[in-house]
Amino acid sequence: MELKKKILGLIEHDAKLNPKTIAVMLDEDETVVRETLKLLEKESYILGYNTIINWEKFGEDGVTAMIEVKVAPEREVGFHNVADRICRFPEVRSVYLMSGTYDLSVVVCGKTMKDISKFVSQKLSTLDQVQSTVTHFILKTYKQENFIFEEPEEDKRLVVSP
User: Fold this and answer.
1) What is the rounded distance in angstroms from the CA atom of residue 98 to the CA atom of residue 86?
2) CATH numeric code, 56-141
3) Which long-range contacts (CB under 8 A, 24 or more apart) does 126-131 make?
4) What is the residue-level pLDDT of the chain in tens, covering all 162 positions?
5) CATH architecture of the domain with residue range 2-42
6) Contact between residue 33 and residue 103 where contact means Cβ atoms under 8 Å apart
């Protein structure tokens, strides 16, 4: 179990690490690392490998929104069924059960604000369990999944000494 945790810790921060590099880093046999990775994938510890891309550098103008959703929980299943249904919409990137004034936080992406608006009005708010929504549009991403999108600009002010 300890080897699994070590491997997961390494690839969580850099999914590009190959089994040979991981084996060297952990002083383990490459075959053991390769088999452990396959097992972690099979047992759904590793659900996938993502790349964080700064689409803004390409001039892409996609829109991301975080939507607060107030939900009427269902008897016996709570929020599970409605959350599962929301997860299946292709626009939805993430769904979180939250504490506080709303129940679910839903992250959605679209090409335009109108796409997000249509999603909320035609798909999300029409679900029986959904009582209300509040949409927050992401204006700028500074950091995502531990990656900073822009390095701070160098201070170009002249030093003034007394």
Assistant:
1) 15
2) 3.30.70.920
3) 127/82, 127/85, 127/86, 128/72, 129/71, 129/72, 129/73, 129/74, 129/81, 129/82, 130/69, 130/70, 130/71, 130/72, 130/82, 131/70, 131/71, 131/72
4) 799 999 999 999 889 999 999 999 999 999 999 999 999 999 999 999 888 888 888 887 789 999 999 999 999 999 999 999 999 999 999 999 999 999 999 999 999 999 999 999 999 999 999 999 999 999 988 888 888 887 777 777 777 877
5) Orthogonal Bundle (1.10)
6) no
